[in-house]
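Session log. Operator J.P. requested a structure for one protein chain; no other inputs attached. Running the standard single-chain path with token output.
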Amino acid sequence: MTATETTTKAPAKKAPATKARPRKTAAAAKAAPAKKTAPKPTGDDMRTQLRTIPTSKIDRDPGQPREHFDDASLQELAKSMSKLGQLQPITVRYIQETKRFTLVMGERRWRAAQIAKLPQMQAVVLHGVSEGRETFAKAVAENVGRADMTAIEEAKAFRKLVDGQVDEDGKQTEPGYTVDEVAELVGKSAAYVQWRIDLLRLCPEAQQALVKNQLPVGLAWYVGKLADDNQVRFLARWVRGDFKSARDAESFAQALHTEEKRQEQQGSFFVLSDEVAAARKDNGQDALPGTLDLPEEERERITADRAKLLGKIEKLGTAGEILSLLAATDPEELALLLAGTPGGIGGHRLRVKHLQDIATKAMANLRKAEMVAEVRASGLKVNPDAETTAA
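Structure written below.
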């Protein structure tokens, strides 16, 4: 009995244990997919993989901030990739609906791979990442500062980040960043970002000149403040080489902008002309450029003040003679002549240095004055009422 009972009970104890384990395992296996499926929208499906994917299944991002790629540098990169392969992976996001990949970073490498006819590319694949401001911000940050990214491309990218995402109806779907936030994202100063955005005020002709490196970026910022008509006329002068230097051109653009504002306050348009207006030569106006629109009393005051100023400027000749003498005298002779005099040699040197500083400022002011005179001498006033009547 005892032996029989033991034999009977032993299997009874083992049987439940053996059957229980498979039931729990099966239940867990069925429950696991349900748990993983539920939180997909909240981020479980957002993951990153390093994969090798077909080059033919990669599409360009239509919102890519860069629009221009240098053909010569692409050919060089393609040759390198043909020999050494792809050294750095690109970044793409997987589009579930199309089963294809859209570029996030690395379009230049992708273009070179197509030229080199590489069938596959190494890529960091982002799953569950939709097109949005953060994705675009990554693309902008990766490209800003590259030598082959134009200032206009940067300007458009910064403007898009500031404006946010907008649908086809013009309704904002995602808020934009502030200028300070954009600056932090791309590693630039806020002034740099705003300066670039301001370039979008350039007319199409000036933007093209900037893209083709025919117009310096620093000068372009001043040109962008002008009315479109004056931008085109200024650009023609710049291309012709009418300015001695870029600084002269900047001063001219600044003077032109000031004149535009002055004419706007008077209720008339100001358009830059390629030739001096004939009216300015009447009644001795060629002697007083820019005073045609001033009353007689003001012109008389300008004539009197001009005579006083010219009398003082003529004395610069004496200062020039003194400086020429100091420059031509042998240093040892200067030491003998000036040592022990009031202030000593160091005192005289400081006086000359002071004159030098003032002369530098005077030169800058005269440059601006020269451009103001040129702007006024080559400008045409257009009465808006007359223009409307003619139209």
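Operator note: Residues 1-22, 24-44, 276-288, 386-391 have pLDDT under 50 and may be disordered.
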